[in-house]
Specification:
The complex is a heterodimer.
Chain A lengths: L5 E9 L5 H9 L21 E2 L5 H8 L7 H17 L9 E6 L5 H13 L7 H4 L3 H12 L4 E5 L5 H14 L5 E8 L3 H9 L20 E2 L1 E8 L1 H6 L6 E10 L12 H14 L8 E3 L6 H15 L6 E2 L2 H4 L6 H15 L31 E7 L4 E8 L2
Parallel strand pairs in A: 2-6, 3-4, 3-5, 9-10, 9-11
Antiparallel strand pairs in A: 1-7, 1-8, 5-7, 8-12, 11-12
Helix pairs in contact in A: 2-3, 3-6, 7-13, 10-11
Chain B lengths: L4 E9 L18 E2 L15 H6 L2 H17 L6 E5 L5 H13 L8 H4 L5 H10 L4 E5 L5 H14 L5 E8 L3 H9 L8 E2 L16 E8 L8 E10 L4 H11 L9 E4 L5 H12 L6 E4 L1 H4 L6 H14 L7 E3 L8 E8 L3 E8 L2
Parallel strand pairs in B: 3-4, 3-5, 9-10, 9-12
Antiparallel strand pairs in B: 1-7, 1-8, 2-6, 5-7, 8-13, 10-11, 12-13
Classes of the chains: A alpha/beta, B alpha/beta.
């Protein structure tokens, strides 16, 4: 039984970069990834900004060695999972018990949408190839096969907290001695299904999102994937470089308030953060940076802000929503932001909360507006909250 | 992974009279066709009638079975709620997708989208119970339910809680049935479910259902059975060796197992491995099957677990499940071996308390 679980590698792709290095550059240059819709054939083109990964399916297929007929969800997953595994450079990889624990919320919906147009007209029509991998689990399987991982794999789906849950489920598999290492995180591609879904809820901002701002009007949909490579004590000792950090705390709580809306006092978020602190043995004053869930919707940010006030008052650590760069990547956000949290510790960074102007009325604090380097960052909290009241907080701690 | 996991209670909704029934598979329903639909309970006992109208088939089944399971276990607030489903909320997914296309993305009502996320059943249970505890949903094809079970076992092992509600939930809608039929999963000709294992055919029969379990690490004479082992395998090189190793890790040999429940589904290719094992490793062991009762679906192993727990508690092996009965006695050790599409294999060991 491993007492600690270490982060040995990271990989990420989103609208602001195709790998870790490009993300760091975009953060420093304060370059957000939102723009016009180019990938989808939708009536919302030119109406709603989205944060697309700047590569076509063909280009992603080229990079990953997968077929371009495969769902974009899996293609994006492959890019980041591969980068994370290469970064970890695990010696003796083939002889360890390895798992791939991935999360997503849309599965192969991008291809199913194509299938469905023809299928609706005639139930005997529609290319089966496009619907064969509809399931969320297929995304994980495709990537695990390509990475040569067969000891263990599974897929989680708890809406926008999905990949945060994947990361700590994987950590627990290591702690329970089921696995020696795991690649854990998540992926999601922008689809017409989710774009229209969020649009019907009237929570998409027609301008670039303004998380934690009094005048915020909603989220921008994003896409991408992010993974961390988690390893046991034993594997950590065999690495040629020092692991980035530990996953020191985690907790999953349910808001139990409404299927989509957050409770006004942020009960679920509060319990998730409080539980993660308890697990890590830390107090609120130990946290050096909070990577907010911070979607930019009036309801979400208000609930999260209120929960932070309840837990952290009167001293607040620096905090920001990197969704101001990447948009809300749904099931991938917990994985992508876990990578950002790890990089914050590694490089001493605090990311700015872009476009912030006015403090929210209900809280006495503001998110960080500037890109800060050379900070002493030991403990980072990463929040991921989703539909169904699913709230998860992770805490990463420097070694 | 060390484990002390008891099944305190179980509730199962299926194409048979498994839910709130006094009997135990003694009044079997014969269906002729290629798809078995779950028998709908009287939801008014479990759900506010206003909500029933808005809820899809799988949400209603999930919530009803969860509530019944908690009632039977005499638990009001579980320490965790975990579900497994391969396809999630298909009815709402298909509804929303259809409207996007037919209405060309205009004037779409949000309800179907809201309820289409895979975690809706677990979320609705939490909402009804006002349960703020751990809540998770696994969506990995043929081992979705097993992944949820592994999570529950770890939570008990970590002493995070001493009682967990865990379930497998799956609904089959016309669209998924049509697509899966085109993909070759089901028979092309109608068949009686009671003759599913007769003859050599391609394809099984589609099914659906939910099975919920209250798992606890506390011994009690009320417990149905103990879940003593669980293992999932992906494309194993030799399933026979894997089963031997699995039993060994539980200090058992194949002769110690009183009954094996297999995932035979009436498809010639699918059943090949079961038939081989029946003549080899399993040759001296009593065998049972279950998919003729509930149909084949990704989380049908939750039906098998309900079956095994009840066989052990009641000391009865219903005639309808018996393929080969070598010893007539009350089984104390039951092995469930199921595979889905020859890729995902799972082994569960259930023992008398």
């Amino acid at each position: 039984m491993s007492s600690s679980v270490y982060v040995a590698g990271v990989g990420v792709i989103s609208a602001i970069g195709n790998n870790v290095a490009e993300h760091l550059t975009s953060f420093e240059q304060e370059k957000a990834g939102m723009g016009d819709i180019t990938l989808l054939n939708t009536i919302h083109k030119h109406q709603l900004p989205v944060a697309e990964v700047k590569l076509s399916d063909d280009e992603l297929a080229e990079i990953t060695g997968l077929s371009s007929t495969i769902s974009r969800t899996a293609l994006l997953s492959m890019v980041a999972a591969k980068e994370a595994l290469a970064d970890a450079a695990i010696p003796d990889f083939g002889n360890l018990r390895t798992g791939f624990v991935s999360a997503n919320s849309v599965g192969g919906m991008d291809k199913s949408e194509d299938f469905f147009v023809e299928f609706l007209a005639d139930n005997n029509k529609g290319k089966l190839r496009n619907v064969f991998d509809h399931e969320c689990g297929s995304m994980t399987e495709i990537v695990a096969d390509k990475l040569g991982i067969s000891d263990f794999m599974t897929t989680l789906s708890t809406a926008c907290s999905s990949s945060a849950n994947a990361i700590f489920y994987a950590a627990r598999l290591i702690k329970n001695d089921v696995l020696d290492l795991a690649i854990a995180g998540g992926t999601d591609a922008i689809t017409k299904f989710t774009l229209n879904g969020f649009n019907t809820l009237m929570i998409l901002d027609k301008e670039l999102c303004k998380p934690f701002d009094e005048h915020r009007e909603g989220l921008n949909l994003g896409e991408g994937s992010g993974y961390v490579v988690l390893v046991s004590d034993k594997v950590a000792k065999t690495l040629s470089k020092i692991p980035y950090c530990k996953l020191s705390g985690y907790n999953n709580s349910n808001d139990a308030y409404h299927q989509t809306a957050s409770s006004p006092d942020g009960t679920g978020s509060y319990l998730a953060m409080q539980g993660a602190l308890k697990k890590s043995g830390l107090t609120p004053s130990d946290i050096d940076y909070i990577n907010l869930h911070g979607t930019g919707t009036p309801n979400n940010d208000s609930a999260e802000g209120t929960a932070i006030k309840r837990l952290f008052d009167p001293v607040y650590p620096p905090m920001s929503s990197t969704k101001s760069y990447t948009g809300h990547t749904l099931g991938a956000s917990g994985g992508i932001e876990a990578v950002f949290s790890v990089l914050a510790i590694k490089h001493g960074l605090i990311y700015p909360n872009l476009r912030f102007e006015t403090r929210m009325e209900e809280v006495p604090f503001e998110p960080e507006k500037k890109f800060l380097k050379d900070q002493d960052i030991k403990h980072v909290m990463s929040n991921s909250f989703g539909f169904g009241g699913n709230c998860t907080s992770l805490i990463f701690s420097g070694i | 992974m060390s484990m002390k996991v008891y099944i305190r209670a179980s509730a199962c909704i299926s194409a048979q009279k498994t839910f709130n029934s006094d009997g135990f598979l003694d009044d079997i329903i014969e269906y002729t066709g290629t798809r078995l639909k779950a028998i709908e309970p009287d939801y008014k006992q479990f759900i506010d009638p206003k909500q029933i109208r808005r809820m899809s088939h799988v949400i209603k089944m999930g919530v009803a079975a969860a509530k019944q399971c908690l009632n039977d276990a005499d638990v009001t607030m579980p320490g965790a709620i975990i579900t497994g489903t391969a396809f999630g909320c298909m009815q709402d997914t298909v509804t929303f997708l259809t409207r996007i296309i037919e209405q060309q993305e205009e004037l779409l009502p949000p309800t179907a989208f809201i309820q289409s996320t895979h975690n809706t059943v677990a979320a609705q249970i939490a909402l009804m119970l006002k349960c703020h505890n751990y809540n998770n949903t696994f969506v990995h094809k043929g081992i979705s339910f097993e992944s949820a079970l592994i999570d529950a076992i770890m939570l008990l092992n970590e002493k995070e809680t001493d009682n967990i509600l865990v379930g497998g939930t799956e609904e089959m809608v016309d669209t998924s049935f049509k697509v899966l039929t085109r993909l070759g999963l089901y028979r092309r000709q109608p068949v009686s479910n009671l003759s599913l294992f007769t003859g050599e055919f391609k394809g099984s029969i589609g099914g659906e259902g939910v099975g919920f379990f209250l798992l606890s690490n506390k011994p009690s004479t009320d417990n149905l059975a103990e879940l003593t082992g669980l293992k999932t395998l992906y494309k194993p090189k030799s399933i026979e060796e894997a089963i031997i190793a699995f039993l060994q890790s539980n200090d058992l040999k194949i002769d110690d197992v009183d009954l094996i429940i297999t995932g035979k589904n009436g498809d010639i290719k699918n059943d090949e491995i079961y038939n081989q094992l029946s003549d080899l490793l399993f040759k001296n062991t009593s065998l049972a099957n279950y998919k003729h009762l509930c149909g084949d679906y990704s989380v049908s192993s939750s039906f098998a677990l309900w079956l095994a727990a009840n066989i052990i508690k009641k000391g009865i092996v219903p005639d309808t499940v018996i393929e080969r009965n070598i010893e007539i006695s009350s089984p104390r050790k039951v092995l469930i071996y199921n595979h889905y599409q020859n890729k995902y294999h799972s082994l569960m060991l259930i023992s008398a308390i």
